[in-house]
Amino acid sequence: MSLTKHPTPEQIKRVPKAVIHDHLDGGLRPQTIIELAAEIGYTKLPTTDPVALADWFEESCSSGTLVRYLETFEHTIAVMQRREAIIRVAREAALDLARDGVVYAEIRGAPELFTAQGLTLNEVIEATTEGFKLGMADAKAEGLFIRVEQLLCALRQNEHSDEVARKVVEYRNRGVVGFDIAGPEDGFPPTIQQSAFDYLRQANAHFTIHAGEAYGLPSIWQAIQMCGAERLGHGVRIIDDIDFSGPEPKLGLLASYVRDRRIPLEMCPTSNLQTGAAKDYASHPIGVLEQLRFRVTINTDNRLMSRTSMSNEMIQSTQAFDWTFQDLQRLTVNALKSAFIPFEERLAIIEQIVKPGYAAIAAE
User: Fold this and answer.
1) pLDDT digits (tens, 9 = 90+) for 249-284
2) CATH for 290
3) Which Gene3D superfamilies match (predicted)?
4) How many Å is the maximal CA-CA distance in the chain?
5) What residues act catalytically?
């Protein structure tokens, strides 16, 4: 069967992809940052050369700590305080993903970050949605298909979660499909925002939670068992609940629960290498977790900070784990099965775009 073949990097660039963990303010084009900074007189950029700026972001984010990684967002957030800037960034994000073969994307952002100069949460959300629509239209004009939806983030160290959760419900079916909390895990457990999660569950709204990235199993347990997370942002530390000392891996109670309940893991290998969650691709837990048939998905996290793309994530992981077309298709289907859009709409993308696309490219 052709899907059992190993894809070339060129073929990986063309296969249909789905990303469900991608941050809007972590995916700007370097040239866009420079131009937006010039428009508002922002002079704190380390350089105005686009290549050197891309180098600076990647190097600054490779310190091995999540805290240092998050500090780089000061610059991208600073240039995204105007409606026009948000529209441009969202538009370019949708088009850049489409050009990389992505057919479905859930892009997340924290609206509160872009209100420093007077924008309201509603204006930020609506500008983002408008940008995505324009980007989807740009992609269509280039003969590409992509569907982009928005996740609203609250920051776990702040106190806006309840308000942002209400916005998720208010803008449901108007470009917003779910909720997330992001920011530093250590010292800010997800249970701090318990009221927001209770509200979302009662409103039948979808949400994911950043957990098990920089902090360990307690973060994952709280996200699932206390807060009711449908998906785990990263979730890489679930590997700590698997015993590899014997002839066969032995799953602990939490790892078994996550696998048995098919709780999706939004894994971002390159980002995890930068923040110290893994030392290289070959040792990243995504390989063994995929073998053990967890609901693994592969994602970009922050395309600028990690200087990555969905194609790069797939290429690096394929080389590290000897994945075939079948493995990549399974991860793509996992992402779509885990998407926050209605079941029949997920199924349509899987059956009409993903499976035919993989079959055609693998048959070459």
Assistant:
1) 999 999 999 999 999 999 999 999 988 888 899 999
2) 3.20.20.140
3) Metal-dependent hydrolases
4) 61
5) 213
